Amino acid sequence: MTLIPSNLSYSYFVLWIIIIILSIGVLKLFIAGNNPDMRPLHKQNTGILKGTLFPFKTFRNTKNEEINLNTKNGSILLFTSAGCGACKSLYPHLESFNKSYPDLLLVLIIQGSNDAIELLIDNHSLQNIKIVRSTSSLLQESKIEVFPFAYYVSHNGIVLSKGLINNVEQLFTLVKEGLIYKKQMRKEVV
Hints:
The protein is α/β, with parallel strands linked by helices.
């Protein structure tokens, strides 16, 4: 019976350690790629620049009431279109998102006719959400190129984060990215 020389068994041992380390690395990459909280939002290079002032401080909702964006913790401005399929998949989750962040003002800005907007409100129980009917000038000044798109705006109107929002998890990511950016801004001031 022949025995494997000790330096050969040492190289097998090192080889197995390398394989295990690489496997763990690939697994972490796979998990990160499938976790929406760990992926950046798309279309962050479009719209109003992060760190700059959002062009509106108030809106008029569908009931002609004024909505003031000067709130303590900021606002989420979600731009959608009545005919957008991805937008329609968001509507059923907005109430629970709103409850998850009661200190943030959620404003849903919808492009579409009054009838289409009323139908969306009724079909998706959006009565507790602040809803604004979009205009072409509002979209143009807000630099909206694609739907659904959202901004997280601070209490003083600074864009903290922005991006394309295709699911409710990405709304949570928008808030997380905005909070991180807010902390970075505070450190730069100090």
